[in-house]
Amino acid sequence: HKLVDLIAACPKTELHLHLEGSLEPAMVFALAERNGVILPYASVAELQAAYQFNNLQEFLDVYYAGMSVLLHEADFYDLTWAYLQRVHQDGVVHVEVFFDPQAHLERGIPLATQIHGIRRALEQGQAELGISFRLILSFLRHLSEESAFATLAQAEDFFPLIDGFGLDSSEKGHPPEKFARVFARCKELGFKITLHAGEEGPADYVWQALNLLHTDRIDHGNRSLEDPQLIQTLAERQMTLTVCPLSNLKLRVVQQMEQHPLIQMLDSGLKVTINSDDPAYFGGYMMDNYRALIEALPLTSEQLHQLARNAFTGSWLSPEEQQPHL
Ligand code: ES4
Ligand code: ZN
Q1: Which band of pLDDT confidence, cut at 50, 70 and 90, is reported for residue 290?
Q2: What is the DSSP secondary structure assignment for residue 277, as one 8-state letter?
Q3: How far is the C-alpha of 108 from the C-alpha of 238, rounded, in Å?
Q4: Which residues hold Zn(2+) (predicted)?
Q5: What are the backbone dihedrals phi and psi of residue 259, each rounded to the nearest 5 degrees, phi first?
Q6: Which residue CA neighbors atom 3 of ligand 1 most closely?
Q7: What is the pLDDT of residue 326?
Q8: Long-range pairs for 152-158 at CB < 8 Å and ≥24 separation?
Q9: Which residues have beta carbons under 5 A from ligand 2 (an ion)?
Q10: pLDDT value, residue 266
Q11: If you measure from the C-alpha of residue 2 to the centroid of ligand 1, how many angstroms do you get, rounded to a whole number?
């Protein structure tokens, strides 16, 4: 398809990517072997067969089980390096990636092990692949405010290695307001913040993310479309939404790609970007997401370029750093 070639050749940035969600089944097995971890799956095929989800929670259960093979600095390095090599092929030149430290701290993996492994790969990606990066520490919203504050305290030694903070995991019943004080502190410390909101949770959670937590980006935001006033506010503020089409399909946020509201979002003036979320679990990386959209929706070349440009202007690169990509 001509439009696929067009967007493939276009420099792209990814703003919504969970590193642990880029853990491919083959690497789960390789790391299990290397680390002597016993898996409840006999083969790669058996593991892949478990990748059928009816909702966010069913996915998260498999996602947290999968990352149990990540034990050593080298594991976090290998994970991150594999992701960077993969998206380099897709024409991705800048990434802003999440990691979930609490999921590893709970298993006894020190923050230093996690961050040093991830950063070593990110710096190698910058040097050898020309991929610039930001690293985002994401709090798990199903855990307590106290746990988030304790994690923030532990992260203090690594503040120079972190660019911002995020909020992910089970959304329903865990509104942004639960973490208002945590993110106020993050902002006070001078960090950017970005919050998952309106994926499964209601439009009200997006309002909270905006007005209570003063978020710098909204991750997903699909359910904003249920509230015309919210659409208008997001459009007026040119708030970046990091939309994840294959994720939306796999987690049944949309029933078919043909029904994805991406074009409606663009037509409403929303600043939308395309991202892969958890590519190892949801069926593909950056270009797989664009390809699926192009096949299902009547997108124009102008809209595709707009999507790619939105990700750069919505990124945490300085205007000077964004300039060469625009
Ligand atoms: C996630 Cl798709 C999604 N939603 C919420 N939290 C997550 N963590 C990893 N992927
Ligand atoms: Zn996500």
Answers
A1: very high
A2: B
A3: 41
A4: 16, 18, 196, 277
A5: -100, 5
A6: 169
A7: 87
A8: 152/182, 152/185, 152/186, 154/101, 154/105, 154/111, 155/101, 155/111, 157/111, 157/112, 158/111, 158/112, 158/115
A9: 277
A10: 98
A11: 32
Give the residue ranges of DSSP H helices in the chain: 2-8, 25-35, 44-49, 56-66, 73-89, 101-105, 111-124, 145-155, 180-188, 203-207, 228-236, 245-250, 262-267, 279-282, 286-296, 301-313, 319-322
Please indicate whether residue 66, judged by its CB atom, sits closer than 6 Å to ligand 1: no
Ligand 1 atom with minimal separation from the 199 CA: 4
| Ligand 1 probe mutation, 196, 244, 253, 281, most atoms within 8 A of CB | 196
Which tokens go with 48? 């892949």
Q: If one looks up domain 2-315 in CATH, what number appears?
A: 3.20.20.140
The residue type found at 251 is L
Would you list which residues are annotated within the binding site for substrate? 278
The token pair at 163 is 């660019």
Determine what percent of the chain is predicted with pLDDT higher than 90.
Answer: 99
Q: Which residues are annotated binding-site positions for Zn(2+)?
A: 16, 18, 196, 277
Segments making up each domain of the chain, as ranges: 2-315
Paired residues of 277 in beta bridges: 17
E strand segments, 159-239? 164-168, 192-197, 217-220
Distance 59 CA to ligand 1 centre (A): 8
Nearest residue (CA) to ligand 1, atom 5 = 169
Residue 286, phi then psi, degrees to nearest 5: -50, -55
Is 58 known to be catalytic? no
Q: Tell the burial category of 219 from Cβ atoms under 10 Å away from its Cβ (0-12, 13-18, 19+).
A: buried
pTM over 0.95: yes
Report whether residue 216 contacts ligand 1, using a CB cutoff of 6 Å.
no
Testing ligand 1's pocket by substitution, the residue of 17, 18, 142, 281 carrying the most ligand atoms inside 8 A of its CB is 18
Would you tell me how many other CB atoms lie within 10 Å of the CB of residue 295? 13
